[in-house]
From TrEMBL:
Keywords: Glycosyltransferase, Transferase. It comes from the Bacteria. It comes from Pigmentiphaga daeguensis. Gene3D superfamilies: Glycogen Phosphorylase B. This is Glycosyltransferase family 9 protein. Transmembrane segments: none annotated. Pfam families: Glyco_transf_9. PANTHER family: ADP-HEPTOSE--LPS HEPTOSYLTRANSFERASE 2, TETRAACYLDISACCHARIDE 4'-KINASE-RELATED.
Amino acid sequence: MYAQAAIRRTARPCLLMPRADSIYVRLPNWVGDACMCLPALELLRREGHPLVLCGRAWAQDLFSGLTGHDGFIALGRSFGENRQTLRRSLAGHGSVRGLIFPNSLSSAALFRLAGIRSAGYRGDGRSLLLSWALPKPHGLHEVEVFYRLAYETLRRWQPGPASRPPEPGKRLALPLTAAHHEHATQTLAQAGITGPFVLLAPIAAGLHHGRPKAWPGFGALAEALGQRGWTCAICPPPHEVAVSRAAVPSATVLPPLSLGAFAALTTHAAAVVCNDSGTSHVAAAAGARQVTLFGVTRRERTGPWSPDAVCLGAEGQWPAVPEVVAAVERLAQGDTE
């Protein structure tokens, strides 16, 4: 009842949002989810609102091409320190509002206690902490879920214009910087990779309904591609180097890169082969040529948001190695059919 009353109160004309007001955006804590927010962020920017992105430190580099004219606030693990950081930043922004993409109670509490009136999906007791508590849609891709939150929030804050797209575009369109591409190019040169290569990402952290999310055929794939003359490379983060080497012992190991430089690296590859994981969404965001493998998750909900991505396998059925080899070679030759 209280949440419904709060929503009714926010619909009054006196609460319309001036277009110059900044929007503090709480990004998701997972790389893939953050990438899938990109169409929603672009919608907010199109409306003329400066954005202040708030998220984990890794997101600052990944989104540095997007936040050149906006701002970024790195959040750590301490709730109290994050609250103080946000409150200090508000001094230079005048009137602001918040949009919270994560579904956690803590993310809503952080913005509320920092003094930011915010919108987000209700649930888990969040309604009393949100000034605009929206019902979460079901049965949509995560990109559409995030976009719907931004779209419906803008409808409440600033009705119209009629030209506002009700659905996200077909691509994530992550802007990368010249520094990102330069770092990726230097890394390849230092590793002695001067020709076409296939970038493999064999690790997918965690379980899905108790089942591993990582395709077990990466080692055999690298051997098969090597026999066909392809150079295979991996570029794992520091905490995944050992397990990645074990999964693909024949691949060239590139040093760990920042997420922005890694995104650029995916665009230099003839093909990226990855699990349904954060790497899949980074590759899609960068516009890379990618093959994403499914065996325990549903591509309709979490698959790469790219019309050019090749998706193999299905929930409950991993693809075979020869199928992946054939897809890589077709993709590398420019055939996405």
